[in-house]
Design a protein that fits this description.
With 503 residues, the protein is an alpha/beta fold. The chain has 20 helices and twelve strands.
Length: 503
């Protein structure tokens, strides 16, 4: 019997559906309580070849029916599963999704060992239960060998960082993009292979992770790949970053560039410091060393990497309590109200000295580690005095949440950071121009840090943050930084106030 939901199902038809599926919501798998209304919808939509038979109709709760909107029931269930996966963090890669799918029982395994032999223009790839042969090609620019293959998920993994080894995976997964890919690949072909490399006996993918994530959710378990055999990791990493930044349709989030470039830069920095040639080591010397090693990379790009390294050192510090509120995307969220771009234009631009110093790293004059520790200490002060109370579920009528939302708005933080710097420099008696340029590039005593905390306490407890909803401050904080700063100062948020004077 062919039916559509453009008419009401009969009671007999509803019962047949419930006999098949039970009294469970098909989208969530949860039991539908007795007395709770049951809705019925197509599992697979007409537009995606869904049949108009009772077998293609399932029960769902009224709430799920409302939430799914115009999505087919099948797509809505996948969306719910993706939301569950992404609640695990905002720095998730294909590797995390593969682990999640194993835990959920969707796939048996991934990343299994492979053995390969390259001989006479052919590549033989062997793993448990299978052996395949492919033609080998040579890149005319680099001389690297590679091959094309359709490989099962059981032998694929994400090229993530592990065991202090740089991974080539340049992005984190983005919820919206994965879901769009899933919907797209239900009806469209894959035009380009995912790209990876052989590392020891592992096949690791670094390009096309959103594509594979979307395909996995459609039920695909074999994937078209281009695999490099003998690539140089440094050149491949640079090529990969440029391909995903300068030449990609979807550009890097600036925050992801910070995390990615900062990690790579740190490995190079350590290699430079360990070089035993008798020359004194400094950050300026390292930049010159890197210019020679990275011939063809613009000085501006190297300087950007240096700043990324500094930001990464602060953000990823083990004792940074503020870290869990920092978004890995360019957008803030209810749970993560602060972005790295925001930090780079506020606290970091005012308190970190972001140029390479000439101080010998082997002497007491070199204070970069102290500066990073001081920056983390200041961020922890903001956590102790304010962010620990962040509660996005509290709503706009909650005064504490209203104060915090205003305090950590992007333009607000850029404006008050400049005022805060003047107050902190005065509290620390930093009058010299060079000292003011590098306020945290020094050893600070507990007593000095306590003075800084008093200044920050005055900032976070400023009365205007708690103004009623709809107050003038909300309109002002949406303006540009200079307008916001001028308004804050007019209302009394000046260095003198932060140091203890009345408004």
């Amino acid at each position: 019997m062919t039916i559509t939901l453009k008419r009401q199902l009969s009671e007999e038809e509803k019962q047949r559906i419930l006999d098949q599926h039970g009294r469970r919501c098909w989208a969530t798998g949860m039991e539908i309580a007795t007395g709770q209304p049951i809705h019925f919808d197509h599992i697979r939509a007409f537009s995606r070849d869904g049949e108009s038979e009772l077998d293609n109709i399932a029960p769902m709760t009224a709430e799920c029916n409302r939430m799914k909107g115009t999505l087919p029931l099948e797509d809505f269930r996948v969306k719910l599963r993706l939301q569950e996966f992404f609640r695990g963090g905002d720095r998730l890669t294909l590797g995390d999704l593969l682990r999640y799918l194993v835990e959920q029982g969707d796939i048996e395994d991934f990343g299994s060992d492979v053995n390969y032999v390259e001989n006479d223009g052919r590549v033989s790839l062997k793993w448990v239960g299978d052996e395949r042969h492919y033609e080998a090609y040579t890149c005319p620019a680099t001389g690297w060998k590679y091959f094309y293959a359709t490989l099962p998920v059981t032998v694929l993994d994400s090229d993530d960082e592990r065991d202090r080894e740089i991974g080539l995976q340049p992005r984190y997964l983005i919820f919206k993009k994965v879901f769009e890919m899933y919907r797209h690949f239900q009806r469209h072909p894959v035009l380009q292979p995912s790209i990876g490399r052989l590392v020891g006996n592992k096949v690791r993918l670094f390009d096309g992770q959103h594509k594979i994530a979307g395909l996995l959710l459609t039920g695909r378990r074999d994937f078209e790949c281009k695999i490099y055999l003998n690539s140089d990791i440094r050149l491949l990493n640079q090529t990969n970053i440029q391909a995903h930044d300068k030449f990609a349709q979807t550009r890097f989030y600036s925050s992801i560039m910070v995390l990615k470039l900062g990690s790579q830069f740190g490995v190079d920095f350590q290699a430079y410091k360990n070089e035993d040639n008798g020359d004194p080591k400094s950050e300026s010397g390292f930049m010159q060393w890197l210019e020679r090693r990275e011939a063809g990379v613009a000085k501006g790009d190297l300087r950007k990497r240096f700043r990324s390294y500094l930001y990464n050192a602060v953000i990823e510090a083990d004792d940074n309590q503020m870290k869990r509120f920092i978004s890995a995307s360019n957008r803030s969220s209810d749970e993560k109200p602060i972005t790295i771009d925001q930090l780079s234009k506020s606290l970091f631009s005012n308190f970190l000295y972001r140029n390479p110093v000439e101080d010998n790293m082997a002497t007491e004059d070199y204070k970069r580690d102290a500066e990073v520790a001081n920056m983390v200490a200041i961020m922890n002060m903001f956590y102790d005095l304010a962010l620990h109370a962040w509660n996005p579920k509290a709503g706009k009528n909650d005064e504490t949440q209203r104060r915090l939302t205003r305090l950590f708005r992007s333009k607000a933080s850029m404006a008050w950071s400049e005022i805060l710097k003047d107050a902190v420099c005065a509290k620390l008696d930093l009058l010299d121009r060079e000292d003011r340029q590098r306020p945290l590039y020094r050893d600070l005593t507990d007593e000095q840090l306590e003075r800084v905390k008093q200044v920050i306490s005055r900032l976070v407890n400023w009365k205007w943050w708690g103004a009623p909803p709809g107050d003038e401050i909300d309109r002002i904080l949406a303006d540009n930084k200079s307008v916001v700063k001028e308004w804050l100062k007019k209302q009394g948020l000046r260095p003198g106030y932060l140091m203890g004077a009345s408004e």
